[in-house]
Amino acid sequence: MKVTTIGIDLAKNVIQVHGVDERGKVVLRRQLRRGQVMDFFAQRPGCLVGMEACGSAHAWARRLMKLGYTVKLMAPQFVKPYVKTNKNDAADAEAICEAVTRPNMRFVPVKSEEQQAVLSLHRARQGFVRQRTAQANQIRGLLAEFGIVIPQGIRHIARHLPEILEDAENTLPGAFRQLLRQLGEHLKTLDELVRAMEVQIQQWHGTNEASQRVSAVAGVGALTASAMVASVGDARNFSSGRQLAAWLGLVPRQHSTGGKSKLLGISKRGDVYLRTLLIHGARSVIAAAGRRKQSTVGQPAVQPRADRWLEALIARRNRNIAAVALANKNARIIWALLARGDHYQAFHPLVAA
To answer: Domain 5-99 in CATH: superfamily?
Structure first.
C-alpha cells in the first residue's frame, strides 16, 4: 500500500517512523538509526511528513523537503493529546502521524539556515547578558559583606571597582582584592562578548531590507527587528496581526462560560524573548513620550496619531498596561509591514472607509 502520511519522532540517535495509507491504515512502523534516515526516505516517493518542533526538527525538515516531501512541524503541546496510552517512541510517532492530518492543527513554519543563524546570535547574546548580570550581582553581594555598597547598575560596578581595589583604607584582605580583580576581569570579558554579539546582529540588520523596515516602528530597534524577522519568517503564515500578537502571548487569556465573557491577563504564550523585547521597547517609547510632553509644554506641536493614542491610554490606565498594549499594537504593525511589504509612516493620513 502507498504511504500517504508519515509521523517522525525525533531523538539524538534513534528515530521512530510511523506511516499510514490514504484510508488511515498502518502500513509502516520502523525504528531508524540517525545515519539511516536519509537513505530510507530517499528510496520512497514524497508524501506528507509530520514532526514535533523540537531540537534538530528544522534541519531534518529542510533535508526532507529537498527530497520532495511536504514537511509540517507542530508544537509538542498540540501533539500530546493524541497519545492514546503510555508514552514511548512508537506511540509518539503514531500521535504525530494522526495530529498532522487534523484540519485545524496549527503548524510551525520551517526556518531557513539564515534565520537559525540570526536567532543563534540572539540566544548567545541573551546567555551572556544573564551571565553578566549574575556576575555583577555576585560582586555586589561579596562587597556588601565587607560593608561596601555600590549603586545599582552594572556600569557603576565598572566605575567603582578600580577605586575600591586601590583604596588602602577599606581594610580588604589581599586574597579578597585578588578575587575581586579576577571577577572584574570576567565581568569585562562578558561585557565585550555581549557587545560583539550586538555588532554581528547590527551587521545582519544592515543587510536585511525587511528588518530595516520593521525598525522604523517606534520602540523597535535593530535587536527587536532582527529577532522578529528571523522568528516570524513569512508573516503571511499568520492570517492577521492579531494572530501574530496572540502567538507572542500579548492578548488576554479567556475563561468564559455560559455566554459570559471573562478576560484575564495576557496569556504569555509563545516566545518569551520576543515578548520581552517588544514590551521593553514600548516602555522606552512611553518614557520618551513623557519627556517630549514636558519639553513642549505651551508650544503647539503636531503629534503623530500613535502619540495621541498613547497619551490618552496612559491618562486612563497605568503605565504597565499601556506598555503591553503598545507592544500588542507594534506586533500588529510589524505583521502588516512583513505581510504586505509596506513602509511604516508615523504621520500616515486617515483613509475614509
So the answer is: ATPase, nucleotide binding domain (3.30.420.40)
